[in-house]
Write a structure and sequence with these properties.
Helix 1 packs across helix 2. Helix content is 21%, strand content 20%. A hairpin with a 2-residue loop joins strand 13 and strand 14. The chain is an alpha+beta fold and 332 residues long. The chain has three domains: 54 residues, RNA-binding S4 domain (Structural Genomics Hypothetical 15.5 Kd Protein In mrcA-pckA Intergenic Region, Chain A, Roll), CATH 3.10.290; 189 residues, Pseudouridine synthase; 32 residues, no CATH class.
């Protein structure tokens, strides 16, 4: 596979890509016996003879590490200030490793280190939506409405964030703890999302990437990934995203919305009696003497068509339960 010459040198552990550009421009690199000074030159280290100062370069073996990054460590391989880098915490490796994604200096937690550029691109590119889980300790009381806004997405300066998975681990008047899973990697995204909701982050820890976690790995410690973990990472972007978080319960607004959706429509369906289907029941209409939901009592229903007397029913016919006795009102 053809690759840029400076990338080949960097992967072989010569130096950073920028430093390798100066090495190429100085005429110290040759391809199949021809000295190359062009920065855009490409070569295939697997089939071509690439040499630096007369010594042939070999493809570096691929390595995969998991690191529990502590605070104060900067995710770069070239820091002029001389601060601690993630690669300084990898024991016994001579490969030129680089971090997969970034954690800012004040954040801590899970960080993958490798020299496999293809895998690193699949794990960090937004279109693959690799899930990353964080535990965030924030200031203030996080309400249900705050959780809903995080789940739906928060408007940042460049765009609205994608849906997130949010779980409240602890709520307090001055401090709350959240577990948040996102599938994109904007710069300082978790901190900016929570700052937008007026809950600045006190502590941020990345706890998982997919199924990989920090279990058994102390702060500042690193270990090689097992072969099955590497295979899992290679197929991870093909896995379906998790179901969205359920809406928090107990919100008055959500209860009102559910009540409106469950209520019958005021417009009666076609083919039904509009007067009956659109009738609204009142307290009076539920009276035990109300037989048809009109709100009228049985006493009024027994009045005849002319409005007088109690011996006829609503249709003006003799009542079946109250018959007229012959011979006047006196009993025989």
């Amino acid at each position: 596979m053809l690759e840029r010459l400076q990338k080949i040198l960097a992967r072989a552990g010569v130096a950073s890509r920028r430093t390798c550009e100066g090495i190429i421009a100085a005429g110290r690199v040759s391809i199949d016996g021809q000295v190359v000074t062009e920065l855009g030159a490409k070569a295939d280290i697997g089939t071509q003879d690439v040499r630096l100062d007369g010594q042939r370069l070999r493809p570096a073996p691929l390595e995969y590490w998991i690191l529990n990054k502590p605070k104060g460590v900067v995710c770069t391989n070239d820091d002029p200030a001389g601060r601690t880098r993630p690669v300084d915490l990898i024991p016994g490796s001579r490969a030129r490793l680089f971090p997969v994604g970034r954690l800012d200096a004040n954040s801590q937690g899970l960080l993958l280190m490798t020299n496999d550029g293809a895998l690193a691109n699949r794990l960090t590119h937004p279109r693959y939506e690799v899930p990353k889980t964080y535990r965030a300790t924030v200031s203030g009381y996080v309400s249900n409405e705050d959780v809903r806004r995080l789940v739906r997405g928060v408007h940042l300066a460049e765009a609205k964030t994608q849906r997130a998975r949010v779980e409240v681990l602890k709520r307090g008047r001055s401090r709350s703890i959240l577990r948040i899973t996102i599938r994109e990697g904007r710069n300082r995204q978790i901190r900016r999302m929570l700052a937008r909701l007026k809950h600045p982050v006190r502590e941020l820890v990345r706890t998982r990437i997919g199924r990989l976690s920090l279990r058994g790995l102390g702060s500042g410690k690193a270990r090689r990934l097992k072969p099955d973990d590497v295979q899992y990472l290679r197929r991870l972007p093909d896995e379906p995203p998790p179901a969205p978080s359920p809406q928090p319960k107990g919100s008055g607004r959500s209860r009102k919305k559910a009540k409106r959706q469950a209520a019958p429509s005021k417009n009666p369906p076609a083919g039904t009696d509009a007067k009956r289907s659109g009738r609204r029941k009142t307290k009076r209409s539920t009276h035990r003497h109300d037989s048809d939901g009109t709100g009228k009592t049985r006493r009024n229903q027994r009045r005849g068509p002319s409005g007088g007397g109690r011996r006829g029913n609503r249709a003006g016919k003799p009542s079946a339960t109250r018959r007229r006795r012959p011979g006047g009102d006196s009993a025989q």
